[in-house]
Amino acid sequence: MSNKLLRGTLVLTLGTYISRILGMIYIIPFYALVGKDGGALYQIGYAQYAVFLGIATMGFPQAVSKFVSKYNSIGDYATSRKMFRVGISVMFLTGVLAFIILYLLAPVLAESSLGQREIGNTTVDDAVLVIRMVSLALIVVPIMSLIRGFFQGHQSMGPTAVSQVIEQIVRIAFLLVSAYLVLKVFDGSLVTAVGYSTFAAFVGAIGGLLVLFAYWQRRKHGLEAMRENLVPSEDMPAGRMFKELFSYAGPFVFVGLAIPLYTYIDTNTFIKSMVEGGFKETATGIFSIVVLYLPKLVMIPVSLATAFGLTLVPTITRSFTDKNMKLVNKQIDQAFQIIIFLTLPAIVGLVILSEPAYMLFYENDPDGALLLRWFAPVAILFSFFTVTAAVLQGINKQKLAVISLSLGLIIKLAVNAPLIEAYQGVGSILATALGFGASILYSFAMIRRHAGYSFKLLFKRTVFIGILTAFMGLVVSVTQSVLSIFIEYSDGKMQSVIILLIAIGLGAAAYLYAAHRSHLLEKLLGSRFSFLNRKKKAAE
Fold it and tell me: pTM for this one?
């Protein structure tokens, strides 16, 4: 892989993580402003938008990136530019169409989410307003995403990374400032504040689009220098072009919609099921915790583990193409083990420290802390689903990845309502775990069948990582118990910060030291961090 591509991948990964960290941090002041009811209303609007956005983009940005990279590599720049022009037109049309449909269907979708005209302080009219305000973003975001894909196809990752960060900064700034002004300065309603908070998606997209336009102006001379084809142009008809694009995009768009689709099921069944179960008074509050606030706490370790695992997928694809199945098995092993190594201790840490963690981000809420203890273990399922789906695509079994997701969604849809009626928020978490668990088991079976993969080493390493994690958990638990003699997390956020920093610091140090002394760290990450291998050789 070229240095340019490696550098670009690093820049893109860094930009993605900065965006995700910002997306986690902003939720603290947002919760302080709008609380549980505002969070529920926000999520009702945003869940509809996320699904419509996935449908509107149809995986085109990723497909265009691959298409442009393919035809540029053979010197057919005319076909790349033709695809870009056609793609922009398609994204504009699908974006406008998605906006119109979502805007018009807002009353139906709002009533479907709430189940009746009013739940607590939230009415159908409130939800309609929020859905319609966020729907405007559908006009801009698909176009922005496609331009990012075009730049990435030229192995230029900087525009995507910078535009992602600027988009997030502009969105969060508008969201928080508008909510603060509406509620604290103009003494407006919670509904108006949340409406502007969702409208921030449109404002942020404008910011991201302006960044991409600035990059285009700076680099258009370099792009225009590619006008002269090195080979005869394909002169590809639009129908054939779209056929090739959809062959790239189909599986990616469906699998990429996994978490939004799970969230969408909750958005349309959670509150109604809580009411049916006799929990009307707490329905919107528990909904906002489970569907909006808890995922923010677990997505950073999930994203980190998944990113490390996914970096191996291109090499898995290469090895599979070369029919080197021994190497394929080794790379799959490494991807799975890295997920367990990074995610399992984070889960255990969150379970043990759920009360101060929830206090730091939100407030001292026994319900929130309890639900976090249940939700944290689901994090490892998110990671495994993403990587197993990518591995299936890497071994050219894209359709099986789609079947895997479909199986999980059917299970989630079937058991969600009865489990929520019986166990409230915990029921929704259990339904999600059952759905993702079934998808992962199916994917495991297919990977074993089509790649000849053996789970023997993975099982042994998982047991060993489990022992190290138990040791870490003991350190964290003892540290928290000792600190509780002097500091009470419920006294405030600063006390929670002190407890978390000391407990996490000591737990992480104990875990990494044990992993290093046992040479597990070198075996899993030595290829990424050369100094680990040097230490290992020196010890030998």
Answer: 0.87
